[in-house]
Specification:
Belongs to the NAD-dependent DNA ligase family. LigA subfamily. NAD(+) binds at residues 29-33, 78-79, 107, 130, 164, 279, 303. This protein is 40% helix and 19% strand. The chain has 11 helices and 11 strands. It has helices at 3-21, 29-45, 85-99, 140-143, 169-181, 190-198, 203-209, 228-237, 252-265, 283-289, 307-319; strands at 69-71, 81-82, 104-110, 113-120, 123-129, 135-137, 159-166, 212-218, 247-249, 273-280, 299-303. Strands 2-11-10-3-9 form a 5-stranded mixed sheet. The protein has a 4-stranded antiparallel sheet with strand order 5-4-7-8. Strands 1-6 form a two-stranded antiparallel sheet. A hairpin with a 2-residue loop joins strand 4 and strand 5 (123-129). The chain is globular and about 50 Å long. The structure holds nicotinamide-adenine-dinucleotide. Nicotinamide-adenine-dinucleotide binds at residues 15-16, 18-19, 25, 27-29, 32-33, 59-60, 78-79, 81, 107, 109-110, 114, 164, 216, 277, 301.
């Protein structure tokens, strides 16, 4: 077995545990992504070292004790990543080659945690975290504490939707200021704070910390909903908060210009985003494209360059 593969798998298992289970990462996301990419490349070169338990094969997320476990009817996937123009261009080319010329929906990639909401007969009945993608945790009572999530909706058939729970920047600052006063350890960022909060056993704490959510996907078929943009409209119509910054793009020029505009807007938004998600608009084409073990082939996440790195580069430029 290739030694570096073994080393990377051990490291990534540890980092994944710190991040997903303890909500206390010890390395930056960029460092984690870089090591993951190195492992993916090495595993491609060494197919004989395949292991179903490799971090490359897992969505991430572990089930803790303390919350009931729920099996997702449809798996909750992660997203493949792209870091530059070329990565996105090859994604667009791959999609076009397999399903023909396509429209894409671009959405902000909210830096929170994925959540699934269930409604029966128009009533909110259950909320489940992504967990490992197959089985998640029942956090229904905590989700009830989030003011923007509707407890009743006009749509009466069984409904499951997916989206992102996040902590707005303003809540994050308040929570950390309070923790500093009480000499408690600070949360590293709003995402960790949101993940830590949703696993609280005391619903009062959740209520006080002011989480929010954006909803972007239907996990059931709904008549008349044939595209991602239809899904967003359906969600908005049923009283869910959708992110208004989405746009339909027809080609790479439009995709790249949306990314440039929103990279600049990022600092002014009241919530954290860590990239842009590009999705094939037509649901029929999404089905045709299908999934890998952990990601849909009909979407890709463009990840913004690390903020730390940008700061360092500016420092270097300033000192030169
Ligand atoms: P991800 O953050 O790369 O992207 C997938 C997730 O994006 C989805 O599951 C969904 O929750 C979210 N998302 C936000 N907006 C969305 C939208 N509009 N449409 C669809 N999805 C949207 O994947 P992940 O599996 O949640 O996390 C993996 C990432 O976590 C890694 O890339 C790494 O950056 C980080 N991580 C870091 C460490 C560390 O030690 N620092 C460890 C493990 C993972």
């Amino acid at each position: 077995m290739n030694q570096r593969i073994k080393e990377l798998r051990d490291l990534l298992h540890t980092y994944g545990y710190e991040y997903y289970v303890l909500d206390k990462p010890s390395v930056s996301d960029q460092e984690y992504d870089r090591l993951m990419q190195e492992l993916q490349d090495l595993e491609k070169e060494h197919p004989e070292d395949y292991d179903a338990n490799s971090p490359t094969q897992r969505v991430g997320g572990k089930i803790l004790e303390g919350f009931g476990k729920v099996r997702h009817v449809r798996q909750m996937y992660s997203l493949g990543n792209g870091y530059n123009y070329e990565d996105l261009q090859s994604f667009v080319k791959r999609v076009d080659a397999s399903v023909g010329d396509t429209d894409f929906v671009l959405e902000l990639k909210i830096d929170g945690l994925a959540m699934s909401l269930h409604y029966d007969n128009g009533i909110f009945v259950q909320a489940v975290t992504r967990g490992d993608g197959v089985v998640g945790e029942d956090v229904t009572e905590n989700i009830r504490m989030i003011g923007s999530i509707p407890m009743q909706i006009p749509y009466k058939d069984t409904l499951e939707i997916r989206g992102e729970i996040y902590m707005p920047k303003a809540s994050f600052e308040q929570v950390n200021a309070k923790r500093a006063k009480q000499n408690e350890e600070l949360f590293a960022n709003p995402r960790n704070a949101a993940a830590g909060t949703i696993r609280q056993l005391d619903t009062n704490v959740v209520y006080q910390r002011k989480l929010d959510g954006f909803w972007y996907q239907l996990a059931v078929d709904v008549e008349g909903v044939n595209s991602q943009s239809d899904s967003l409209e359906f969600l908005a119509h049923n009283g869910f908060k959708i992110n208004p910054e989405y746009r339909i793009c027809k080609n790479m020029d439009e995709i790249w210009s949306f990314i440039e505009t929103n990279s600049e807007k990022r600092a002014t938004l009241p919530y954290e985003i860590d990239g842009i998600v590009i999705k094939v608009n037509s649901l029929a084409k999404q089905n045709q494209l299908g999934y890998t073990v952990k990601t849909p082939k009909w979407a890709i996440a463009y990840k913004f360059p690390a903020e730390e790195v940008v700061t360092k580069l500016t420092d270097i430029t300033l000192t030169v």
